[in-house]
Amino acid sequence: MMRMKKTFLSFGGLLYVAVGLIILGIGGCSAVRGDAALRAGHPDVAAELYQRGAEQGNGAAAFRLGLLVSEGRVSAAKYGTAAEWYVKACDRGVRPGCHNTGVYYEEGKNGVTKDYGVARMYYLKAAERGYMQSQYNLASMYSNNNISPPDDIEGLKWMLLAQTAALQCKQEPLCQWILSDPPGHKHRLIERLSVEEQQKAKSLVLAWKPIK
Predict the structure, then answer these.
(1) Which string of b and e fits 83-116 if b means at least 16 CB within 10 Å?
(2) Which of 79, 155, 168, 196 is spaced 20 to 30 Å from 111 by Cα?
(3) Comparing 29-33, 57-61, 206-210, which segment has the lowest mean pLDDT?
(4) CA gap 95, 122 in Å, rounded
(5) Do residues 204 and 157 touch, judged by C-beta distance below 8 A?
(6) Does any domain span residue 32?
């Protein structure tokens, strides 16, 4: 379940200068038809079952099929790209699907053209539903001036929300990483804001509620 790039990852999250692809193990979420085949070492059988489930509206199945394609365990030529399945998962309310789609557009990889505007859109879909990793990535995009128009108050809001969520799991490496923020995104955002603007960001955090 673990992959590495520049830093480390934990319980299903890839970390680079932001929080990257979410790779969920089968045990990490509810069972989906196809999981047993995957556990038994038959990814193609699992993919076929996931595809059927996804076509019937199962977002978790779409997400799992995206993972199999992204990991190269099944053929994109046969099943379609990982990004296509992540988008379908996102459309069906699966927050990691939105997050992974955002990562693809932010990085411009796996056949997806880099587009910060689209990356922001998908991160926002998950962040507004309380997804910590996407909240952090939104903050990093504001910090790096990858979002137009610039809005450091909004960036600090998402950083504070991500770190508030990380406090609830601070014993986990991923949450520790978000709290320590090695790239320094929080510091960069604060440096560009007045005291009054920082207070406005904190007020936005206090007023914020996740979309159900």
Answers:
(1) bbbbbbbbebebbbbbbbbbbbbbeeebebeeeb
(2) 155
(3) 29-33
(4) 9
(5) yes
(6) yes
What's 75's domain CATH number?
1.25.40.10
Q: How far is CA 33 from CA 10, 65, 73, 178, in A?
A: 26, 11, 17, 33
Residue 81 in tokens: 């790209």
Is residue 144, in this structure, part of any structural domain at all? yes
Whole-model pTM: value is 0.87
Distance CA 131, CA 165 (A): 9
**Alpha helix ranges (H) inside the chain:** 35-39, 43-55, 59-70, 76-79, 82-91, 95-107, 116-127, 132-143, 152-167, 173-180, 185-191, 195-207
Give per-residue pLDDT as tens, 78-107: 999 999 999 999 999 999 999 999 999 999
Position 128 in a domain: yes
Residue 188: which domain range? 13-207
Q: Would residue 113 count as lying in a domain?
A: yes
**CA 103 distance to own-chain centroid:** 7
d(Cα 67, Cα 47) in Å, to the nearest integer?
Answer: 10
